């Protein structure tokens, strides 16, 4: 099924899930509609209905969507029924922040291992996790069959680390390094670069 669904549609599902979770936990709402969701997210109601229709029929005409049911369905579609163990590479300022970020666990992810190559950092604890030497990275990914990695390393190290991860069997990489990585097409690589987002916004600003 995944090969038949546009990636842009998959990318919107977590946005829907986040909005629905907020409605359920913060507002106590039981039902919603594609129109209400669209108003919250700035996405047309028709687009929301079309996106969800790729996976089945989740609502009823005139009554909308049962929020908790739709949350459960979306979590299933995104394979979030159980927590995904994650390996974090980079224990600097950014890595420290990521290791302490509580939002991962609540959304289906758990950072279980941290790696770095700085001898002053290796061996220390970070949020109750021992920072391991980067030389052990490939073996751990293989032994634990880790599927997801987060890169919080400098540009100069990013591709080398990505190669180690791919060779060890990683399937998904989220990179904070401001560089495009080279990886086989079957490897899911996503980027988080705030400077890119800022540069995108400045296009719309008056000078």
Spell out the blueprint of helices and strands.
Elements: H1 7-27, E1 31-32, H2 34-41, H3 45-53, E2 59-60, E3 64-66, H4 67-77, E4 84-89, H5 93-100, H6 103-106, E5 109-116, E6 125-126, E7 129-133, H7 137-144, E8 148-151, H8 155-168, E9 172-175, E10 188-191, H9 194-202
Parallel strand pairs: 4-5, 4-8, 5-7, 8-9, 9-10
Antiparallel strand pairs: 1-3, 2-3, 6-7
Outline the structure in words.
The protein has 207 residues and is α/β, with parallel strands linked by helices. It folds into 2 domains: 2-77, Winged helix-like DNA-binding domain superfamily/Winged helix DNA-binding domain (Arc Repressor Mutant, subunit A, Orthogonal Bundle); 84-196, Rossmann fold (3-Layer(aba) Sandwich). The protein has 9 helices and 10 strands. It has helices at 7-27, 34-41, 45-53, 67-77, 93-100, 103-106, 137-144, 155-168, 194-202; strands at residues 31-32, 59-60, 64-66, 84-89, 109-116, 125-126, 129-133, 148-151, 172-175, 188-191. The strands form 2 sheets. The chain has a 7-stranded mixed beta sheet with strand order 6-7-5-4-8-9-10. Strands 1-3-2 form a 3-stranded antiparallel beta sheet. A hairpin with a 3-residue loop joins β2 and β3 (64-66). α1 packs antiparallel against α4 (67-77), α2 (34-41) crosses α3 and α7 (137-144) packs parallel to α8. It is globular and about 60 Å long. The model has no long low-confidence stretch (mean pLDDT 92).
């Amino acid at each position: 099924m995944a090969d038949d669904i546009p990636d842009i549609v998959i990318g919107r599902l977590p946005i829907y899930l986040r909005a629905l979770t907020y409605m359920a936990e913060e507002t106590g709402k039981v039902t919603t509609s594609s129109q209400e969701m669209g108003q919250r997210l700035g996405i047309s109601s028709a687009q929301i209905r079309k996106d969800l229709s790729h996976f089945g029929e989740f609502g009823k005409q005139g009554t909308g969507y049962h929020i908790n049911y739709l949350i459960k369905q979306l979590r299933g579609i995104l394979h979030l029924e159980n927590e995904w163990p994650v390996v974090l590479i980079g224990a600097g300022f950014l890595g420290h922040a990521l290791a302490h970020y509580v939002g991962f666990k609540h959304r289906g992810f758990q950072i279980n291992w941290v790696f770095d190559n700085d001898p002053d950092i290796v061996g220390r604890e970070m949020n109750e996790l021992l920072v391991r030497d980067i030389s052990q990275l490939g073996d751990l990914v293989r032994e634990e069959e880790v599927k997801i990695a987060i890169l919080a390393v400098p540009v100069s190290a990013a591709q080398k680390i990505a190669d180690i991860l791919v060779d060890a069997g990683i399937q998904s990489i989220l990179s904070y390094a401001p560089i495009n990585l080279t990886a086989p097409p079957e490897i899911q690589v996503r980027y988080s670069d705030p400077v890119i987002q800022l540069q995108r916004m400045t296009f719309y600003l008056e000078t």
